[in-house]
Amino acid sequence: MIYLTKSIVSASRTLLPRTSYQLTPKPAWPSMRCFQSTAMAHKKIDFAQKQVSEAEMFPKEESSVETNKGNKKGSEKHAGKTSSLRRVAVEAQRSRQGFVKGRGSKRFVDPEVDTKTVTAYCAAETYNISTAARLVEAQGYELDPLQTGLYPQVIHVRTRDRPDEVKDTQEGDIFIFPSGTMVTWNVREREALHLVNRVLPAAAEGSHLDLLETEDLEYLEDSRRESSEVVGDTIILGTKAEHGSNDAPRETGTDETEQRHEIDTVLAKIAFSSGLARSTKLAILETLLSDYQHSTREIPIMLAKGDTKTLGRNDVPFTRSFILRKTGELLNIRAQLNLYSELTDSMPDIFWDSRHELGLGEYYDQVGRALDVGVRIKVLNEKIGFAQEIASVLRESLSEKHGLRLEWAIIALIAVEVALEFYRHWTDAEERKDPRSTESLLRQYLVKVVDGQK
């Protein structure tokens, strides 16, 4: 019996595998014919099931590890996909916002964006447009290359291509206005100063190269925008074509549409340039008024002290010519501000005939608001008013001084007349007292004649 048990156990050990991936179906309970044999068989079956279950435990752990690895890979793929989607969303948001960041009054241009420069030069009171056009054309520039039809009111030329000298091979634009200003877009400073200092002075009236005023703004071109605007001190120039321009057939209207869109972009540049030229012209008048105030700043102090003999540090005589010269300077500044230029106009005449949808007047106003032109004009007029009061006081003082001189002259004449009359009466009295005087002798002679007749 013992042998039988050992044989069964050994047989079970040799027959059962150590590792199995298939579960053996649970056998039916055998009939209890032989207690010993059925018990051993039942133990055999339980041992086999235990081995099988232990064998199945390891593949499950491996499969769980593989599953975890797969989950990690899936999570990594999902994370990578999420980051890429986030990146796309950020780029989409950036494309929607463009180069402008922030909202409302806190909007600003992304400082990482590369910008170009637009510069205004004011070197004269006015430019003779026909003479300036002839001089510029003699330098090799083409007048009005896009045929905008604005030549009598503004001169538009483009810089010549110099890829070996200029890093940015894009052509620059130059606009010359009758107000004595020139505005350049993406033009080298050396070329601009050559035109201002060497070419245009022959067409200038009231040239003041010694008081050359310049003013700069940054600008960039945004191909995602149809309209333009000014954000801070940067001009956002929209270069996207209008949607309505796609209605024309491609075969016949593409070139014409592109040319029209380019003309609209140039008109926008002219609007911004006109606003910038207005600010530069105003800066010249501010400088002139500042110099005028510096030359007359001691007059109120001198009047307060009651000293009207000398003025300023150089002992300038308080004369009629000095007062007239200062009055003429002040009137010239006031006339240039309010009469002889378009500084105080809400919109220049050049934009009245333009299409309303271009919004050129709005561009002109945006530059004015960005550079505080309206406030500066108001302050300048107030300063001119104060200087006018000083000039009025000087004129009144001069008139009073002149009247005082006349009064003293009249008094002197009257005094001389009185002295002469007093002298005459004194001499008459002295003659009466002198017995040898002509009157006494005549009186004696008459007395003798009368006595002889008697």
TrEMBL record:
Single GO biological process annotation from the record: positive regulation of mitochondrial translation
InterPro entries reported for this sequence: DUF155, RMD1/Sad1-interacting
Pfam families from the UniProt entry: DUF155
Region described as Disordered: 56-88, 239-260
Superkingdom: Eukaryota
DUF155 domain segment(s): 174-381
Biased composition (Basic and acidic residues): 240-260
GO cellular component: a single term: mitochondrion
PANTHER family: REQUIRED FOR MEIOTIC NUCLEAR DIVISION PROTEIN 1 HOMOLOG (PTHR16255)
Family: Belongs to the RMD1/sif2 family.
Name recorded for this polypeptide: YagE family protein
Annotated source species: Paraphaeosphaeria minitans
